[in-house]
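Feature request, filed as a ticket because there's no other form

It would be nice if the structure record came with a short human-readable summary line next to the C-alpha cells. Right now we just get the raw output. Example of a typical job, pasted below so the devs can see what we mean:
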Amino acid sequence: MHAVFEELSLDLRAHYTYVYLLTFEEERAVRGVREVAKALDRPLYTWSATEGLRGPRARKAEEGTETALGMLDQLAQIDGPGLVIAKDMHRHIEDDQVVRRMRDLRGSLAKAGWGLVMLSPSAVVPPELEKEIVLLHLPLPGLKEVAKLFHALLKGVKIEIDLDTFERFVKASLGLTAEEIKRVYTKVLLRSGTFGDEQLREVISEKRQIIHRSEFLEFFDLDLGIDDVGGLDQLKEWLIARQGSFTERARKYGLPQPKGLFLLGIQGCGKSLTAKAIADLWKVPLLRLDAGALVLAAGSAEEGMRRTIGIAESMAPCILWVDEIEKAFAGVAGGSEGSAAAARIFGGFITWLQEKSAAVFVVATANDVRNLPPEMLRKGRFDEIFWIDLPNIHERHTIFNIHLGKRGRTSEGFDTWKLAEKTEKFSGAEIEQAVIDAMFDAYADDGREFTTHDILRSVRRTVPLARTMDQTIKRLKEWARDRTRPATFDNKRIDFFRDWEAVPGVEDAEA
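Raw output as currently delivered:
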C-alpha cells in the first residue's frame, strides 16, 4: 500500500472525518481508497454529481443524492460505519448550505465511523472548515511504480532490453500519470515496436504537456547534440564524464547527484547551445525558466517559484536552464519594489539550489555576473563555473565546418582555415550569420553557389561585438580569470607545464 493511503488509513482510524486527497489520477486514487476500506472493514460508497450516491446500502434511486447536500443528508440516515469517495467535491464545497451541513454532521459521522474522502486535483477549503479537513497529496508514480508498469508491458509483448535502457525509460517517465505512461508506451510500440534512444526522445517529448501548466517554463525538444557545439573541449569532457550521473549505478558507487553548472561568457559563444546539448547528451528533458518574467509576475512571485520548482522536480531527472540569470537577479540589493520581489525569489532559489534532493540539474547562463549577489556563486550552489571565451582559431575552423554541414555543404569546397584566420574576435553566432549572409548574397546573384569569397566579404562587412565592447569584455575576462574554469583547454598553460617537466633538476628539487 502506498504511503499516502497508509496515512489515510491512520487518519480515518483517528476519527478524522473529512479528507481531501489531491490528485489528477482518479482511478489510481479510487483503487487505493478501496484497499483502505477493505483493510478497515468499512463499506465503500462513491458519489458524483452525475451518478449520485452509490454503495452497498445506498438506495440507488434516492432523489436528491446528485447534489452534495443531498448526499450528506443521505449519509446521516445510514446506520453503521462507512467510507465515501466524493468526486470533484471542490466544485460544491463552497455552497453555504453544504458548509453548514458538513459542520453539523462532523461529530455524528466521526462517532459512527464515517469518512468522506474528497478526490480533487486542487483543494478548495472554506474558512469554516479549515480545522476540520485533512489535506493529503497523492504524488505521481515513483520509480518503483513506473518500473512495475514498464516491466509488465515488456513481459506482455515479450521484448527484452538491457538494464541501463530500462532504467533510462523508467526515469524518463517520471512526472507522468500512470495512464499517460501506459499511453506513451503503447504509442512507442505501435510506431516502432522497440525501445531505444529514438523512442526515449518520444517519451521525453510527451512531457511537453506538463509544461503547459506553467507560464514560466518552456519545454525544448532534443534536436541539438554535443557535436553541434564547436570547441569547448574541456567543458565537453566534464559533461561526458557525468553522462551516467543520474543512474542507480552511480548512487551505488557512492557518487552524489550533480547539482548544476554556471556558464559565464561572451554573447553568442555557445552558452545556450551547450544547455540544449547537455539535455540531448544525457537524454533528459530540457526546461527553460524565464526568471525575469517570474520576478515581474503579478500576484505572488514566491508562489510562482514554488509551483515552477514543483513541476521541474516532478519531471526529474531533467535539465532546468535559467538563461541570462543576471537580468533577473542583478542588483537584488537595490531598494525598489521590483528588487524586493527579486530578492525574495532569489533567496528561495538559492536555498533550493543548496538543498534540493531531486535530480534537477540547473544550467545557469550569464553574460556578466559582476552585479550578481556573491552568494549566487558560492561553493555548493553549482558543481562548476565555466568561462566560455571567444573561439580560438581551431574552434572557429570547427564552427565553420558545422554551419556549412548544417546547410548541406561539405568543407572540401571552402577554405575553412582561411575563414578561421580572418574571423578573429568573432563569436560562434557571428560566424553562423556570416555564412547565412553569404548564402543570401549568392542566392540573389542568379541563385549561384556561394563560395569562400562570399563568406569573406560578409566577414569584412561585420563589426564583431568583441570590438565594439572591447573594454567591457576585458574587464569581464579579468574577473573570470581566477574565479572560473576555462571551457576550452588552455594550450599555453599545458605547454608551460610540459616545458617545466623537461627542465633538468626539477625532479631532484621535488624529491
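Something like this underneath would help us a lot:
The chain is about 50% helix and 15% strand.
The chain has a mean pLDDT of 85.
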